[in-house]
UniProtKB/TrEMBL annotation:
The keyword Transcription regulation does not apply. InterPro entries: Glyco_trans_4-like_N (IPR028098). Keywords: Glycosyltransferase, Transferase. GO terms for molecular function: glycosyltransferase activity. It comes from the Bacteria. This is Glycosyltransferase subfamily 4-like N-terminal domain-containing protein. It comes from Luteipulveratus mongoliensis. Residues 15-163 form the Glycosyltransferase subfamily 4-like N-terminal domain. It holds the Pfam family Glyco_trans_1_4. The lineage of its organism: Bacteria, Bacillati, Actinomycetota, Actinomycetes, Micrococcales.
Length: 360
């Protein structure tokens, strides 16, 4: 592909979305393309775009609308965009701003999250309409987002190819990790921010319904705004749950677990479930967002919001060692199909090529 001038537009990204943008930037630079990143300064500090060889333009794209900052960002983007062959924005707000900044340069938008609910929903629905009507292509991290944007009339909608993370080696023997956690009979692990999207209340609702033979202990690795609420429920309901807080040894915890559980209301392409696949852990998860896109058939998927179904799945997996072994082998096989960094960059370049070939 001819060397291109690519403007990446990014808001306050973190986690898997931030890692994806960083890897895309590095991959484009390595292939000889010129990359400019328009992002908040704290994002550049976190991911080191300016140190990687990309040109950085500071913009203020926050999670929620800010009229003064947004107007300033629009002026900056309008000045920068026409020096590039195409724009690739990440996130709905960044995508809408990029689309509104130009009609001459094609804009590609990757959606990493579902639009929020609540009072701000109307605003984000308007942003979805902007992106669906003006973007040259929309990439989405989950099938449900693909379907939503297609229903809104967006052009050239595809499932985004995001590179799988690597699983770092363990730092401690598994038996030491399990001993730290009280040598549970069967250990289920949950990893994630303790926020409404993860719906850990659903998991707590399900635990009293789990078969007693499971001798199950749940370890929750993560912190967030619902920590105190969840910890109080665990205490008051005498649930066998360990609230571990933020942990830097998630690979050790994964390899020590007998199964992992996700009770989320929505997920994109959850990094920790990909890590669980690499670790060969049996997975029980709610069938939401991009979870099925990640795990394929290598997991037990249940309806979201259904504690009875979640409890039944946890019981089946935790009480049957041979079934857990089979699921673990399926997880390893599935991990081998997850995309690499090079494949993710190649997929983005294919979209760029298609869009530019259809641009006058």
């Amino acid at each position: 592909m001819t060397s291109r001038r690519v403007l990446l537009v990014v808001g306050l990204v973190a986690g898997g979305a931030g890692r994806h943008v960083h890897e895309l930037c590095s991959g484009l630079l390595a292939r000889g393309h010129r990359v400019t990143i328009a992002c908040p300064p704290e994002v550049d500090d976190r991911y080191g775009f300016s140190r990687s060889g990309a040109q950085v333009v500071e913009v203020g794209i926050a999670d929620r609308p800010h009229p003064v900052s947004d107007a300033r960002t629009m002026r900056t983007l309008r000045s920068a965009v026409h020096e590039h062959d195409l724009v690739h924005a990440h996130g709905l707000r960044a995508g809408a701003m990029a689309c509104l900044s130009t009609r001459l340069v094609p804009v590609i938008v990757t959606l990493h999250n579902a639009a929020p609910t609540g009072p701000s929903r109307v605003i984000f629905q308007a942003l979805e309409r902007v992106v669906s009507s003006r973007a040259a292509s929309v990439l989405a991290v989950s099938t449900d987002l693909v379907e939503r944007m297609s229903a809104l009339g967006a052009a050239n909608v595809r499932l985004a190819v995001v590179a799988a993370p690597s699983l770092p080696p363990t730092t401690r023997p598994t038996q030491d990790v399990r001993r730290e956690l009280g040598d549970p009979g069967c250990l289920a692990l949950v990893v994630g921010r303790l926020a409404p999207q993860k719906d850990l209340d659903l998991l707590l609702d399900a635990l009293p319904l789990v078969d007693d033979r499971a001798a199950l202990t749940v370890a929750v690795a993560g912190d967030g705004p619902l920590h105190d609420h969840l910890a109080l429920r665990v205490q008051e309901e005498s649930l066998s749950v360990l609230m571990l807080g933020h942990r830097s040894d998630v690979p050790d915890l994964l390899r020590a677990a007998d199964l992992v559980v996700s009770s989320a209301r929505w997920e994109g392409q959850p990094v920790w479930l990909q890590e669980a696949l690499f670790a060969g852990r049996p997975i029980v998860a709610t069938d939401v967002g991009g979870t099925r896109d990640v795990v394929g058939s290598a997991a037990v998927l249940v309806r979201p919001g259904d504690p009875v179904a979640l409890a039944a799945a946890i019981s089946t997996v935790s009480c049957d060692a041979s079934y857990r072994e089979s699921l673990g082998q399926q997880a390893i096989s599935r991990s081998e199909d997850l995309p690499s960094r090079d494949q993710a960059v190649d997929a983005a370049l294919m979209v760029y090529r298609d869009v530019l070939s259809n641009t006058p």
